[in-house]
Amino acid sequence: PGYAFDYDKSITTNAIREWAQKEANQYTNAGYAREDMAVYAMSDEPGWYFPSMFKALTNNPAALNRFREYLKSQKLKPKDVGCARWEEVYPLGRSKAVDLESKKLFYWTMRFFSWDSARHFAVCTKAMEEAFYTNIPILVNWNFFSGRFYVPGPVANNPDKKDPDAAMGGHDWLEFGKMRGCTMLWTEDWFGDGMAPQWSYYCARLRAAARKGDVNFGGYVIPRTAGQREDGILQKIITIVGCEGKTIKYFVFGPEYNFPGNCYSENVKVLPKMAEAHRMIGAAEELLWPGRMPLSPVGLLMPRSSFAWDAKDVPIPSMIQDATNVRLNNNTVDYLAEVFDLYTALQHANIPVEIIDEDDLNEEGLKNVRVLYVTEPNVPVEGLAGLNKWVKGGGILVTVSGACSADRYDESVDWMAERMGIEEKYNGRFLLPNLGALKEKRKGTGKYGDFIATGPVSEIVSTNKLTVLGRFENGDAAVVMRNVRKGKIIHFAWFPGISYAVSPNDSKGRLPSGWSVNLREWIIFPVKEA
Fold it and tell me: H or E stretch including 237?
């Protein structure tokens, strides 16, 4: 009800309960027991547009009040967002975020919509559990494959193409899981067999979100896009199950004439491999169903705060695309592509990775983490304080160009220089159309061999008190390390993950091959250090 929000005044708690009961009655009236329902798809590809959502919010007094209460819960006062009284506080678009007060209001406006939608989904999920049974697998299928809660610009079908505040909103996967927006977190592939390993990255993020709310996750495998490799679809299925996924649904059999362009009814060559995967799962199901992956001591920080400030200097940006964009190095930003590419290198080295939330940059959230990779420029100040304490206590922090250079409001911070002892000249984030658009290449060498740094490069101002592990051809420091009490920081003045992503020089069986062994060694050596 209401799609992503409850701003229509007819959508009350009772109306939601009536809706859920009506859904259940369709099945019980046909003779089924409530427990017969195996999985229920509650929403497909939720997302919303700005600035139109501002009007929907302000037209609902209860929702507007909830918005202001949300700001209060962030320990904000009216003066913090440039107002004298709460009655003057309204949602704000990015074009008006020109000083610290308005930046705060814009940032928390965007965070509110993601949070408020997750809250609404949680209410609907609870109603469905009451109508069917507790923990019924209720899925919400995301197609924001990088996981952005904010996409700047008039992307997709936004009707306000020329509005400076045009943007698209979506769910923060980790927040949604924590709030129990559904009981079965979900996404889909829609990519060919050559990208089958990408499911591992999706699952790592889904698993991290699911654990926050003590729920499960699964996914749509799309047989229509499979069949280019003999074992391609088997690998997709087994990856989900092997990464702790509990439900798989194949989208969608058909027949083709009922839903042209979406069905696998005529792609019969994938059926034997699907059956083989099912036999493998069935043989181990008694272990797989209750099974949980052990926690890894290696973490990757999932960006969040940085999303709000991407392409901020472009009047009407259109170069970032997340919805339906399965190629995570296309139409994105350097620091976000770097997360996926670092994950790929670690995956190739058989190193499991935990996805870490910004909210978990504290003693409790980092207690099991020995090595943490951070790529995003904007990290909340309380997160930086938590990182500082964690490193001093023995953690190994790995950073790349521009990491930790600003707070959540995009105000510059000197944390890297003042706390970690590394000062660099950073040229700002790079909007990445695709890997082929990266023309800048710099050769380097050092402790772990020769390498080619592809993409933007920063300058490390001084190497005083730093151990230089690698240098570029011109002598500039490329990789440095510094002990910080019991721990250490390792900093790359470039993007080793992106450089690794462009390194394959061959293709075998439709999979990229010839990945740079040296670049992978540069990426994983901090794990060996630990």
Answer: helix 232-242
CA distance 244 to 206: 10
Of 477, 497, 347, 371, which is closest to residue 422 (Cα–Cα)? 477
The rounded distance, in Å, linking the Cα atoms of 152 and 438 is 22
Residue pair 451/356 in contact (Cβ under 8 Å)? The answer is no
Contacts of 342 (CB under 8 A, 6+ apart): 300, 373, 375, 496, 497, 500, 523
Scored b (16 or more CB within 10 A) or e, 261-271 reads eebbeebeebe
- 424 DSSP β-pair partners: 460
Q: Would the pLDDT of 507 be above 90?
A: no
| pLDDT (0 to 100) of residue 130 | 98
Which uninterrupted H or E stretch holds 168? strand 167-169
CA–CA dist 15, 192 (Å, integer):
42
Average pLDDT, the chain: 97
Q: How far is CA 405 from CA 342, 379, 487, in A?
A: 20, 8, 20
Question: What 3-state DSSP class applies to 401?
Answer: coil
pLDDT of the residue at 255: 95
Q: Which of 345, 396, 405, 404 is nearest to 372 (CA)?
A: 396
- Encode pLDDT of 134-185 as tens digits: 999 999 999 999 999 999 999 999 999 999 999 999 999 999 999 999 999 9
396: DSSP letter: E
Q: Which of 347, 341, 303 is nearest to 498 (CA)?
A: 341
